[in-house]
Amino acid sequence: MKSLRWRKFVDLFWTGASGAGVVLALVPLLSLLWLVVSQGVANLSFSFFTNLPAPVGEPGGGVGNGIVGTLLLVAIASAIALPVGIGAGVFLAEKGDGRAGDVIRFVTEVLSGVPSIVVGIVAYGLVVERMKRFSALAGGLALALLMVPTLARSTEEFVRLVPGALREASLALGVPKWKTSLRVVLRTAAAGIITAVLLAVARAAGETAPLLFTSLNNQYWNLQPDQPTASLTVQIFNYAISPYEDWHHKAWTAALVLLLLVGLLNMLARILSRNRMEGAR
Amino acid sequence: MPLPSDSVAAARPSPLAGAGPSRFGDRAWGAGISLFGGCILVTAGLILSELGGQSLLAFRKLGVLHFLFGSDWDPVQDKFGAFPFIYGTLVTSAIAILLAVPVSVGLALFLSEMGPKALRRPVAFGIEVLAAIPSVIFGLWGLFILVPWLRSFIEPGLQAVLGFLPFFQGPPIGLGYLAAGLILAIMILPTVASVTIEVLKTVPLPLKEGALALGATRWEAICMTVLPYARPGIVGAALLGLGRALGETMAVTMVIGNAPEVHASLFAPGYSLPAVIANEFAEATGAVHVSALASLGLVLFGITVILNALAQVLIRAVSQGVPRGAA
Amino acid sequence: MKKLALCALLLGGWASASPILVTGAGATFPYPLYSKWFAEYNKLYPDIRFNYQSIGSGGGIQQFTNGTVDFGASDAPMSDQEIAKVSDVVHIPTVLGAVVVTYNAPVTGLKLSAGLLADIYLGKVTKWSDPALAKVNPGIKFPDLPITVVRRSDGSGTTYVFTDYLGKVSPQWKSKVGTGKSVSWPVGLGGKGNEGVTGLIKQTPGAIGYVELAYANQNKLPLTALENKSGAFVAPTIESTSAAAAGVSMPADYRVSLTDAPGAGAYPIASFTYLLVHKDAKDPVKGDAIVRFLWWAVRDGQRLAPPLDYAPLPKPVISLVEKTIQSLQVQGKPVSLASSK
Fold first, then answer.
1. What topology is assigned to B61-318 in CATH?
2. What is the pLDDT of residues A51-61, one digit of tens each?
3. In this structure, what are the phi and psi dihedrals at residue C52, rounded to the nearest 5 degrees?
4. Using the beta-carbon criterion (under 8 Å), do C62 and B76 form an inter-chain contact?
5. Residues of C in contact with A224 (CB under 8 A)
6. ipTM strictly over 0.85?
7. Number of cross-chain residue pairs from B and C with Cβ atoms under 8 Å apart
């Protein structure tokens, strides 16, 4: 029988070890955040948001077109992914208890694991080769393919969370089934679904790999879906692997902008979900 | 014998027996959402047919076995072997898992059992922040901070202490398998940690409490009851993390060195499946080259699907209470 | 509601009098000059925008062949097989550049013989302190650093020119590796584009790599003097680059190699770089814009080359190119260039 003192020491040791785990996990995070902020703030200026990139080797210029491009790509992706994802989620929640539902649910799980670069290959074959050009549409489709599975799963979850009593009460009052689903159930689940949408959009805004050979890049402003488009993430990548000090600084600043955008979306999602939690009884 | 209430019920029409419009509305709604449900299948079909279609040429021309195990990546002579990329992907992912799982378990234990309650909220928040950071920003940090750090301190240090092992030989340039593995470890931490936390929550309380009641210290209780019970779930979490690590592109591309070779040393530059696709797809010269890259994508997709399915099975096994060596 | 606003925005963007956007992709070799050219041209004609993406010569040729870009760019002339897939391609040489060997080591005035450079890239010479290096560079003190070879990870015209040179001066290289935009490298870290290679060299002590002259100079990296065909060690400059093109007879389709050029002052790894266009453009607006830009580039644009470390086209070549540009057509009709800018 080991002595109590030894056993207490072991207990303390492992407590420390698990604490070390926390430190190991958080140190890179803090280092990264600190660097993005400290390096990125230097270049942060109004012109950074509004200017186009300057020619190679010349100082000045900004990532205005990258910000607009990312917003355009996310808008196109959402236009495709929101109806499909939320619709599929509602299907799984309302009619998904049978064989068909099981199959579709399984396929959704599988799809959520598709690596983002593979989605890029698919979008290239489906859109870029057929349209004979790189386009924001192709990039948006790639992002949509990434958003749909998580949206479907989250929507199913939130719709199923709506208390059955609510649905039954509505039906008992004579409201048709479809109106019940739409006006009562979905409306109740709306906050949760919006949370899921915000998170999916945040993820799409941060993707790079699928955009490399779908939306390519663009030196200029672009709002046309059938043309190549700049994006914050691709710009960061190009600047980071370049040899120019000036571009490295710009990469940090663009990273800061991207982090702020993603962070804002995530924070909105948290606030919404907290309100929902507090509002629910 | 018919009850009076029956006749009353029969006389009043059921609200669900549909007057015309709502019947149509119900049908339209049902059809609409079924359509979207079907879209999922269509999407999966499109992905498979696109990938499969683009890969056919390479498999036909190069032979499946030769493609998977060949080491020659020679676009000039149309010779393509996928082995260096599979090797690089496996090595970097292995490093990531070896580092991330213990840290995640420690983290999860800290958050659910062993740590002071006041720290739980901020640490959990920190993990969520880590999960939201885009891959290219990890790559940026890796390229400018981690790689020089590895080159100047960690790799020479490892070489001094463990240089007799083939894993730590060769010039320490910072870029390579180790850098990629480290970044991947940091990136999959949130995934593995959050699933582990969920798994730990499903362990029935009486198990641990029983051990404590018998005089075990906190760690002994965890070690003897919680961990064995949760083990399949932790393995599942590790597999999920592995699946994520396999598909990670940008951060790996920026620090792995982009060399389609096979080396034993972790300090050597290598390549991974997603990285080579990202670098070469837009400029693949010739139909066979493009097809070879698409085939790499198919291989990657296949591995990821299998891993995710396995992970789901294991995690479900724990949460549905398959007792494993319960005390 | 959100969707309505989105539709309105998209329609507005589409319908508005949008400037002409011409998309091209390809070589990273001339990218510093091209990006300056396109910016200057846009200042002259704000309605015309050239969106050029430097993804490597291999990418330029591939995307041009696929028809996903309006024009391509490559330092490596297209091979006969590649031309067979897009038979109406015309190579337009735009400027001359030099592929230089640069490095990250405390060494000044490095000289390399041809065989030695090949040996480094074959992986036979692995340390800076190797006696072979000292033999060619008497008087220089070399550090005891391992040599980290850097090369391209993407399909590159710069690689084509470099391996073309190595193939000419090293029989072992020719048989073991060969020439191409992507080859099976015996050793080396892969960088994406000239930009990526330069970035890797800058960050890795002991690294050596090949990049276009402009990248080395813009990043204040040291240049290596290489032994040319006449046996002289020549540093890469605009003059030595032009000297390499001086004695060369230009074929009708401009596909020529300038590596290992004869001449005492010729730099051994020089190259033309080309824009790839269609002989008869289908899109009238873009085709017209491209032809007018080419006219400007080979005449007015040449003066922008030397400040960026590129050598302008030799005068005889410019005359030939002007005739070729005049023979380009847009939907079957030539573009009137005589009075143009």
1. MetI-like fold (1.10.3720)
2. 888 877 677 78
3. -110, 125
4. no
5. 13-14, 18
6. yes
7. 84
